[in-house]
Amino acid sequence: MVGLALIVLGMVAGAIAAFSIADPRWSVAAAWLLSFATVGVAAGLLTLRRASWSDDAWPSASAQDSERQTRRTLLICGAFLLVACAAALLGLLLPDTAGEADATRTWWLVGSTGVIGAVLVIAGLAPIPPAVDSMERPPEDADADADAAWVRIGPPASAQRAGDVLGPLKSAQHLQVPLLLLPLLPAFFNLGTWVAAAVVAAALAASAVMLLVLRRRSRPPWIARDGSAIRHGAVDLPAEEIDAASLSVVPWQADATERSLSMTITAAGKHRGTIALRRRGRLVLTASQTAALEALVTRSAIELPRDSSDPKGRFSRSSYPTHLTKEDALAVVREPPGDGEPLPILAQPGRP
Question: What mean pLDDT comes out for the span 332-337?
């Protein structure tokens, strides 16, 4: 409550200072008020991160936000952007607006802010799906050759949706960069038509390359049916060279539902392959794919990584909290943890 009060008071004081700073009679006082308002908002944000008044640790030791709190944050951010968009739109429609060119450029800023705000509001109002409690494996692929030497671990890349590839980007933190760039739109159009077109083309090309790379990295690997080797792209690696495995969970909230679970295996720190175990709460691998992956992990040399300053690995568990031992990797492959179930790693969802 103290943090929220400081933020609200700071925002109100900042708005008053912004409206009165142009008046010569109040400019000095408004500058001081704006400084105190900025400090007040920062102090409020820091206070919100503390679990209690006796918590002096930094970063704060408070637990991670729940799924409901995350949705509430998205809703508040989206509502704020929509209000800002409405205020800017009202200013554009009022008489005595700036020149036609400047108003046209500002429309891009207003429209972009409104779109992002609407997306955040929709995400914040979306109902939280129920927890998935299923150990039912998908049926075997009818087109797969049961006698083939290699088994594809997971569905083909064409079966993956764009939302699964871009899922980690759907959060308030990743929207901060485009929001910070939006105020530069009016100045961007002053660079000239050809320069603006070149920058837009470069941005679109970079986005296309990023999507292609993400799609290529998300392609499922192939494993020898007897578990002797793994093939990812054009590289074949013997099982004995696999020396590390880590676990990743999306989303990371303790009460999150429809969690996606994947295991990343690494060989000599150079070659890496990611295998999806659960997608939106449902099991991904069939029985034959699970058997091949289990055989690969059994033949591997997976162990917790060791830091150069800890050659005996006494602190490997705390230094690498998301990595798995060989026994834990086998258990995860056989029975991937579902929604709400603990993970066989030191880092657990919901913990600071």
Answer: 93
